[in-house]
Amino acid sequence: MRWMRKIVIAVSAVVAVVGSFIGSGAAGGTPIAEAADGALSASSTAIAPGGPAFGIWSVIYVGLIAFAVWQFLPRTADRARHDRLAVPATLSLLLNAAWILSVQFGYLWLSEPIIVALLGVLAWAFVVLRRTRPSGRLEALITDGTFGLYLGWVCVATAANTAAVLTAAGFRGFGLGQDVWGVVVAAVAGLVGVLVAVTGRGRIAPTLSLGWGLAWVAIARLDGPLVSVPTAVTAVGATAVVVVVTLVARARAGWAARPAGLRTA
User: Fold this and answer.
1) Phi and psi, residue 24, nearest 5°
2) How many alpha carbons lie under 13 Å from residue 170 in its C-beta half-sphere?
3) For residues 250 and 204, is the Cβ–Cβ distance under 8 A?
4) Which residues of 102-139 are buried (b: 16+ CB within 10 A; e: fewer)?
5) Where do transmembrane segments lie in this chain (predicted)?
């Protein structure tokens, strides 16, 4: 049964990587930023990150392939942790590919429930990893690090995707303007980052990718056809808050893990 789990994850990882290859335009398809009439480009909405932000996918995909290989090593063959992670990990890989294909074929409306489901299964994976312990630093880097980066980035991607879908559907923000909505969404993304930092006891990886995404939102709003200084300032402020909360949560988790005698010394 465990061998079947390993094979399914490995195949799903290959599907996700092939999907990313198609989504990048390398296989002759349209790059994601240009697909669906440019609905996901850096100038489409006030919360869209700059193009270079998407380079983080390369790091995430390398991590996912490493995770797929890691589970085949003898030291991880009988680990209950990987058994519990198998379903959300597999679903995340398949949903990733499904999201790319939905955008590539112009079904932007379909991309929204897919990316929301992706965010949900990554939150599930995050809970599994938080409640179990890695065998060592290497597994923590490969497994916890990869899925942490994955979760943090998809938090930002979900916000950008939702804004793109609503804009493409003709939603004009009740007349409030791009600055107001940009500030609101950037602030909400920051609150999500704070929630992840607190519940994850200060895990670094989600903060890195979420901060990376928000930083590129700020950069995109300070240059180009869709300038919004309030959104840029809010994105930078949200990133700073998430970083501070992460460091505090991490310090508190480390303090709580110390023997009682040392805590009171």
Assistant:
1) -75, -15
2) 0
3) yes
4) bbbeeebebbbebbeebbbbbbbbbebbeeeebeeeeb
5) 54-73, 85-101, 107-129, 150-174, 180-198, 205-222, 228-249
pLDDT at residue 28 greater than cutoff 70: no
The encoded tokens of residue 102 equal: 């939905």
Residue 240 near residue 188 (C-beta atoms within 8 A)? no
pLDDT at 265 over 60: no
Contacting residues for 150 by C-beta, under 8 A, at least 6 apart: 60, 63, 64, 92, 122, 125, 209
Token duo for residue 126: 């995050």
Largest CA distance in the chain: 64
Give the pLDDT confidence score for residue 27 in this predicted structure: 57
Q: What is the Cα–Cα distance from 101 to 74, expressed in whole angstroms? A: 35
Q: What are residue 45's phi and psi, to 5 degrees?
A: -140, 170
CA-CA-CA-CA torsion sign (202, 203, 206, 211): positive
> What b/e readout covers 191-213, taking b as 16+ CB neighbours within 10 angstroms?
ebbbebbeebebbbbbbbbbbbb
Contact 49, 224 (CB under 8 A): no
- Start-to-end C-alpha separation, the chain: 49
Six token digits for residue 75: 């030291």
Tens-digit pLDDT profile for residues 7-18: 889 899 988 888
